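I am writing to request your help with a piece of structural work I have in hand. Here, with my thanks, is the record as I have it:
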Amino acid sequence: MINKEVIREIYRKYRRRPKNVEELHLQILSDVFGGMDIVRVDDDDVVFLPAEPSEPERKIGIKRINGVIEFDRHVAIVLHASIIFIAKKTGDVTIHIKDMPLTMFDRLCMKFGI
């Protein structure tokens, strides 16, 4: 079960990108989705294939990925400020966007209406 505490732990554990590409565990994507037309791993990108031919492909550079995690029902692609969850059976994509705390400058702007 993926809940807020699991998501918080994922962000904590995958805070930085690993030094080697092998540590990203990109082979999980090929193992899980190899027979389905959902995700493809190229040399420099992870490509999300469209459901309909008229839609464009979506790409994420491998340099932006902090890790890939396999769960019971999902595979997670961890980025710096978001996590992309892909359902294993259906290929449905859910994106979690990290809450960024307000900076002191943001608070001052809000207080003075700037």
